Amino acid sequence: MDATHLLADRFRGYFPVVIDLETAGFNAKTDALLEMAAVLLQMDSAGWLTPCETLHFHIEPFAGASLDPAALAFNQIDPYNPLRGAVSEGEALQLLFKQVKKALKAAHCQRAVIVAHNAAFDQGFITAMTARTGLPHTPFHPFVTFDTAAMSGLVLGQTVLAKACYAAGLPFDPAQAHSALYDAERTALLFCELVNRWKRLGGWPIIQKAEPLTAH
Q1: What is the pLDDT of residues 88-127, one digit of tens each?
Q2: What pLDDT, on a 0 to 100 scale, did the predictor assign at position 93?
Q3: In sequence order, what are the beta bridge partners of 170?
Q4: How far apart are alpha carbons 146 and 19 in whole angstroms?
Q5: Please, what is the average pLDDT of the chain?
Q6: What does the angle CA 181 – CA 127 – CA 104 come to, to the nearest 5 degrees?
Q7: Which pairs with CB-CB distance under 8 Å and at least 24 residues apart come from 64-67?
Q8: Given a cut of 70, is residue 149 above it in pLDDT?
Q9: Measured between alpha carbons, how far is 92 from 33 in angstroms, rounded to an integer?
Q10: Which residues of 4-14 are buried (b: 16+ CB within 10 A; e: fewer)?
Q11: Residues involved in catalysis
Q12: Sequence-distant (≥ 6) Cβ neighbours of residue 101 within 8 angstroms
């Protein structure tokens, strides 16, 4: 089977996009989104999932955004440092949507799905940013997500990203953590390992059993 069709069949037409964000607080409607990374995935002809392309943006705080000093101390981001090369929320989303839609078409998928560690957080910020910029036709499903924290809890018995990576046999450098780029790349490797592990265990592709015969 063609590898692109394998990916389309694997998640019933959904295309997984791994997202990680760094923000200036926890409120998606009021707090600034400062950094965003996205990892696109690919599936080979044998059905194995791997990271493919990474997108990374430093983002300018939107007008009137709240900046929680505790959040900035935690992620070590200076929102107004000119060396960040930050772009507007609209510019970042336009570039992200363009690449995701291109990947959707190539993989014969119908809709993108956010994959993230504690996905509700990232989805909330992406949804709020999309509403602020007024961009139409988001490629992302409005409520379906793949949460690697929940998946790791089930498969590995761990819900913290670093501990889940260690349990999966993946390297994790705490010194690089809380960078959207690093965390997105680690999350992508973790998601691929969880999906591929299920395949190695014989859980996919699913073999459809014949319907039992019934007496007439």
Answers
A1: 999 999 999 999 999 999 999 999 999 999 999 999 999 9
A2: 97
A3: none
A4: 11
A5: 93
A6: 70
A7: 65/24, 65/30, 65/31, 65/32, 66/24, 66/25, 66/27, 66/30, 66/31, 66/32, 67/24, 67/25, 67/31, 67/32
A8: yes
A9: 11
A10: bebbbbbbeeb
A11: 178
A12: 139
- Taking only the tens place, the pLDDT of each residue in 43-97 is 999 999 999 999 999 999 999 999 999 999 999 999 999 999 999 999 999 999 9
Close Cβ partners of 15 (under 8 Å, ≥ 6 residues apart): 7, 8, 41, 100, 103, 104, 107, 109, 111, 112, 113
Cα–Cα separations (whole angstroms), residue 24 to 2, 62, 75: 43, 11, 9
76: alpha, beta or left? (left if phi > 0; alpha if psi -120 to 50):
left
**Measured CA distances, 91 to 12, 69, 121, 166 (Å):** 30, 26, 21, 35
pTM of the model: 0.92
What pLDDT does residue 204 have?
A: 86
Q: Does residue 192 carry a pLDDT above 90?
A: yes
